[in-house]
Amino acid sequence: MEPMDTRMSDILITYDERKDKFESYALTLKSLLTTLIRNEKISIHSLESRVKTKKSLEGKINKKGKYKSIDDITDIVGIRIITHYADDVDKIAAIVEKEFTIDQENSIDKRTSIAPDKFGYLSLHYIVTLNSTRTNLKEYEVYKNIKAELQIRSILQHAWAEIEHDIGYKSATGLPNEIRRYFSRLAGLLEMADDEFIKIRKKISERQKEVAKELEQGTSDSVLDIFTLDEFLNTSRIMSELSEEIKEKTGITVHGRYKDKDLGYLLNGLNLANITTIEQLNQKLSQMKKQIVDRIFCFGEPFINYCRETPMPKEALLSYLCQIIVAFQNSPSLESEFNNKAGLNLKNSNISDFFSNIRENISTQP
């Protein structure tokens, strides 16, 4: 049997020779997995790749003392995928099992391997190689038989792992009972939190489907909230008609949504304008199409020219509607509240002039 020092030297020499290939493989896997996950429409928190450093590799060889060649080491290339939800771990696992060759002997599902009375993070670890379908392609053949470790876990499982690593204890053995209880309680809380986030996501999805059905059936008494307003903006016939009128009269295309889709400010503005249901919103839009068009003209030619080049988000039309309604209440206190809660963020000294300009340039007559 070769002495340990000789095997160590041979492995490290091979590592230096293959390092560029390892780094290229890590980036290739990252790109491939990103595409595969995106194609399944799974939203994840992060996907990171790494290549084990020479120092780390040397430490692993010394610690284990069992490696005869670099091909025995399965985690030189590593990928970590962090999901938002615990059940997405299984969805990504299904992708991995379909698209890669799995080394079952060296893969481990720590979610099932850990005893129920022990603490530790729950994570899924695969050792994989590219399958023959891929290695038959020219761009992948150079990576044939190179193993990589894939870690898949939720963001809360990742938080546990990072804090556990910082604390420095991965086993309860030898810890005082009081500290072991703290760990167990925390592990349970994080697992419950993962489950509760899944339930919240499910409830939101169910509510979105209910709202879509309500609006499709013409339910007029639907209260405005983030779900009903979001669906209204996406599907409203009267919004489409107003958008066409704006295009005809100003040359501005109304299309799309604000990127962050934060409807909180808009809901506040609608509430201050005494619009609290879909029916009220439809009525006001029908009555005030002309005023909304006039509001756009109030901003002046430079603004209009800019908007002709850049589509105006749908939310802007509802914001203008609210501004007009609040302006004609002629209430300084309401104007100030609207400024603070509906996202105008004007200086206090400019609030009065802002709403006066609307009253002076827009007629309440149809």
The helix-strand sequence is HEHEHEEHEHEHHHHHHHHHHH
Q: What is the CATH superfamily label of the largest domain?
A: Beta Polymerase, domain 2
Percent in strands: 5-15%
Low-confidence stretches: none
Question: What is the number of strand segments?
Answer: 6
Radius of gyration over all CA atoms, rounded: 30 Å
- Cα shape: elongated
Whole-number tally of structural domains: 2
Structural class by sheet pairing and helices: alpha+beta
- Any idea of the CATH class of the largest domain? Alpha Beta
Protein name: RelA/SpoT domain-containing protein
Organism: Escherichia coli O45:K1 (strain S88 / ExPEC)
InterPro entries: NT_sf (IPR043519), RelA_SpoT (IPR007685)
Pfam family, one: RelA_SpoT
